Amino acid sequence: MGGAGGDVDDAAVRSLRALILAGERYRQVLSEHVGLGVTETQAISYLTVHGDRGQNELATGLGLSSGALTALVDRLERQGIAERYPHPSDRRRTLVRLSDRGHAVARQSRSWLGSAFEDIPADELEAVSRSLGLVAARLAARSAAVAEAFPRAQ
Description:
Number of helices: 6
CATH class of the domain at 39-119: Mainly Alpha
Distance between the termini: 40 Å
CATH architecture of the domain at 39-119: Orthogonal Bundle
Number of strands: 3
Strand order of the largest sheet: 1-3-2
CATH topology of the domain at 39-119: Arc Repressor Mutant, subunit A
CATH superfamily of the domain at 39-119: Winged helix-like DNA-binding domain superfamily/Winged helix DNA-binding domain
Largest sheet: 3 strands, antiparallel
Strand content: 5-15%
């Protein structure tokens, strides 16, 4: 398996689709459980994976317009999930980081996600992790390329 997109086994693509669907359902259930919207929990995940980010970077990463991102960060601040703070070396910029409550939601999410690996033998976890990272990076790169080639009307 591997190589060009046409050479990939159909079972691998079906499994990736199943993983994406399970992830989307997980996101919905987590959001309901913690009393946040799906976009808010996506932002928590993004900041957990990538660390503090500028608003433009966060907008790009979440596929949101700058106006939609501003409204999202406003909601996250009101909900005590994240906060804006001045960039340490560029006075024109602000960064967004998770608050203590945001980190608590991320920890809860991590325990739920971690349970998905219970049936994977310990000696295979590193290889599974590496493979998932490669798939995620390739999917993110492909999505970014398509988004750049076909920008939405703002």
